[in-house]
Amino acid sequence: MKRRTFLHRIGSILAVLGVTEAEWLTLGNRYYRALAQPSPRKLALLIGINQYPHQALSGCLTDVELQKELLIHRFGFLASDILTLTEEQASREFIETAFLDHLGKQARPGDVVVFHFSGYGTRVNLGTLLDTVQNALVPASEDKNSQDGKIVNYLLEETVLLLLRSLPTNRVTAVLDTSYYAPSIAQAARLHRARQEPVEAQLAAAELDFLKQLKTKPSLSTEHSSPSTLVLSATSNPKQLATEVLFSGFSAGLFTYALTQYLWESTPATTIQVILSHVESSLYKLGSKQQPALVDGKKNLKRALVTENFLPEITVGAQGAVTAIEEDGKIVHLWLAGLPPQVLEHYGVNSRLTLLTGEQLILRSRTGLTAKAQISSIDSTTTPLQVGQLVQEAVRVLPRNIDLTVALHTELERIERVDATSAFAAIPRVSSVLAGEQPADYVLGKLEQTPSRYGLFSLGGELILNTAGEVGEAVKVAVQRLAPKFQTLLAAKLWRLTENEGSSRLAVKATLEIINSISPGVIMQRQTSGTLKSEKSTSKSLSIPTVPIGSRMQYRVQNLGDRPVYLILLGLKNNRTAVAFYPWKPPQEPNSPETKPLLTQLVIAPGETLTLPQTTAAVSQWVIPGPAFFCEQQLIFSTAPLSATLTALDTTKYPTADQQLISALLNPLEVAQALLQDLHNASVVKAEINSIAADSYMLDVNNWASLSFGFQVV
Predict the structure, then answer these.
(1) How, if at all, do strands 42-48 and 82-86 pair?
(2) Domain 40-310 class in CATH
(3) What is the reported pTM?
């Protein structure tokens, strides 16, 4: 396509963007002059659509913003090299035209190219053979009706893949935050990105013609395609749905948010395999069993995505960046998409972040992903602040009054919602909202098969085991019955808020292993940023790993720092049972009437490696029991003794010598609160901010680390 033709066709986009044709021509001339430059360029085309005529989405524009800020501040893209098409700009014709001109005509060997799409996906009839359907992206263009039925002007996934493979560079990455098979029953707790098309709907002839041209034109054929194109998909199989998550003040695609958040914190050596494993773990914590996948370029799983595809400008992770400066440098605007999503939701005023130059910023307000901060001190030696500077977490402030929020399914009758709200009001630290209106942790609803039964569901719509009541149970009774469960889930929510693998300054590393007769086999590995200068993260599988029932397992924990660290393990099985590692030792006197094991602090000396549990004796072996379950465990480290946590554990039931060391936790909420208090006490914060900590926990990244592990027992 001629460049002049493209400028003519994209005129409506320019008008929406407020860019004159003269300005666009000037920009285009700069693009073409840059082609002769020897250094690699970085180009991106980002597409997001919320306003669909049949049912609007809410997180796609946020996805575009998440990607754009990441590319600019983390990977050194120029804003002028990123083209965004949103809402009505993102018609099929404009998407394909923009791809050809912005990416196809400008990319050269060695350049970096990123393509992103957030919006609906669907299955569409090609109209060539009976029952011939393909995956398609739903653009913003209107459908058309004809005498033969409904004509849809969609963009085929095959078209996108051909365009990506045609680019002359081996650094091409695409992110498709969409899905194609719509469910038969709507999920009220979350919007999903799949649309069901009528059987008679047929693809527009223009798209079929364009696809035919791609297949026949030598310069755009698969024979000349790049073997290193990477296409990351939000889902791994047709039955999964790409969904959106509602936070305070904004919505976002689950996959895009989790992916971009991890890339803020990751280091250049991290492989695609490890990245997707981390992303899937993050999705699970947000109530989804989405499994992201590498749908094209699977042989490149062990490539380091950052160094080989994105060409980073830096070698350290961050939690955000400075986006604006006001009041002569006293106030800075921040973008904080590098914080784990469950942490961001509760990230409090007076949290502290540092610039790479050493200056410290104090958080004064936050709205969604953006915040305002004040520099802690300004003197003649302070380096002038600049837009684009990265920020790293220093002190995390969390409120002490965090509640568990349960959404009431929209299918509940009004009287049911009233009764449920009344019942929730009587349960401490648990509140209720209407699904879809405010952020929530879980959903109270009715079982699909037996609508007269109530149960507790994840935000992704999955029933939590052993939460379904009897037929005919009153909703008030159901809420009261679930009260103990709510306490366990709140406890897990609290210890998840300690996760700081990407920001901790403690150098610790933990590996989950299966023990066999030959040698331990690595299941997964987690490590803090303090270890990543010389270490490279590993992961056995692309998705959350599976462990056979009956396996003997252990954690191999390394303290790579110069200070001793204290350790506790907490976990959750199938969202229903809390577990903990009991750091006990037998009584000093074997024949003593005191038979209760004695609690002891679990401490790891500098440079020491510890296995957890110890495997030198048969009684210490950790054998995974059946039936199948999903297990999420948190290894939490502190530079100070976990005294309050140990006291809380002392009220629980302890295992005897013939029981497993990783056992049920009977008072999880008390233990979680005690743990946060211990981490608060261990933190070294300045005296002037200690006075504001009465209603907050203040955690210093120099004094704690928290690593998350998730695996499926089968």
Answers:
(1) parallel
(2) alpha beta
(3) 0.88
